[in-house]
Each structure stands twice: as C-alpha cells, then as structure tokens.
C-alpha cells in the first residue's frame, strides 16, 4: 500500500487534498509553511497525516479491488469459462448477477476490516523494505518462496477450519452457495470470510522481511489467481495437477465441499488427507450436457444443433 501512495500522492492525491482541504483555509502563512515540502504545503493534511492515509487507503483499496475483480473476472468468464456450465442443474437462476452483487457488496467491508493492517504497513510498522541490496538479491527469491509456502499452509488450515460445522454456516456457507461457480464468484464471500482468508498475506510482512515491490506483485497476483481458480476449467491428466491446486481442484472443492482446501499447491491436501485428484468423469460439464441434450441444444456428441440459449 505504501507503494501505491508513493505513486498516487504526487500524481493525483496531493492535488485532491489541496482542493478539498487547502492549507490557506486555516490561515497558514508562507513562513509557517516553509518547513513543509512543496508537495504537502498546499493541504492541511500532509502525506503522513493519519486521517489522510486512512481515507487514501480506503479509496485505493476500493477502486483497486473492484477494478481487478471486474477486469480479470470478465477476461476469465468470457475467454476461459465454459458457458455450457450454465446449464448445469445446480447452476442457480441469475447466478452470474448474484455472484457479482455478492462480490461487490463484500469488497468494501473486507477493505474496512483490512484497513488497520494496510495502515500499519504505510506507517512503517511492517518489515517491508525498499532496496533489494539491503538483504541481497537471493533473498528476493527466498522470501517469495517463503511467502507462498506460508500463505499456502495458513490458508489451508483457515479454509479447512471454516468447514467445521460450528463455523461453516455462519461464515463460509455463502461462498459455497455457488456449487458450479463462475469467475464472478471469486470474491462472493461473507466479508469476514474474505478478511480471514486474506490475513496470511498481510501477516507475513510483519514477521519476515520482504521487498515492497515484490510484495505488491505477489499480493496482486494472488487476487488474480483467486479469480482464475474459479473458471471451472477441468483440465486433467497434466503432470502439474499433482502439485498445483488448479481450477479443476477448486471446482471439485465447490462440488464436494471437503476436498482440496489449498490455495496454490496440493501438498497440504495430500499430506493431511483431503486431496481429490481431478478426473474427466468428475467434470460438471457432463451434467450440463445432459440438460442441453434434453432441451435439444446439443446432439449426443455435445455438438450444437443451431439452437441458442434463451436469456
């Protein structure tokens, strides 16, 4: 978040705050402003003002999270997601609209819950650092590996514990409303669910040093990954499926609930006995095609028969 402010303060935020809260409104003379930088002298709220930082963080996270969600969900939905899955018997009426509504409703509350962590990062309480030379170039690779391993292990157990009966119906059940999800379901969480599952990403930089630009790339990357694992792509038989928690694995998680809790990799599911390997026979497209055949939309081989889906 400090990287975002470093970029946006001189680009737009300094001018915005100067317009909303000009320093002249409070009777500041030229001499009283002489100790301030040129970037801060025109606003009552300097860049290190905590109220300005809070407001800036809330605006940036809201616009950033919403933009990432809409852009990459649209790419995944229109270019990757098999639209025939919308005929699956467990695909809800108006599901896409409901997924989008749920996601957009959750984002601001997740941002508010995450605000203290972002604020602590901006105010220098984390172990984020700027110069790669401070810890050496090899540490960039090591810290990235540690970041992913830490998140994968922590989220595995957070996710698995959320499936405990005493917790599931209160927090995680809203996300499993989507038995056959689309990419639009990526953020369709109860806000507390989304917040808790995001905590490992933030906690890591308070216990382990990480270069801040690397952290930003990995943090944005996991948001995109969260969208793409909801694309319903049941690719099977590839050697990577033994190691990578792919969209196929996550599709099975939504369908069978108690398998494939991992975030990036399958090792935790394999070790703790919750792994279920994707198989062609488990692909939800089979049930979708049955419905389409019954409607006369496809032939026995699944080829379209020149009927369009009714909206």
TrEMBL record:
The lineage of its organism: Eukaryota, Fungi, Dikarya, Ascomycota, Pezizomycotina. Keywords: Membrane, Transmembrane, Transmembrane helix. Signal peptide: none annotated. GO terms for molecular function: iron ion binding; oxidoreductase activity. Residues 145-274 form the Fatty acid hydroxylase domain. It comes from Stemphylium lycopersici. It holds the Pfam family FA_hydroxylase. InterPro entries: Fatty_acid_hydroxylase, Sterol_Desaturase_Related. GO terms for cellular component: membrane. GO terms for biological process: lipid biosynthetic process. The chain crosses the membrane at residues 54-81, 102-119, 139-159, 213-230. It is found in: Membrane. This is Sterol desaturase.
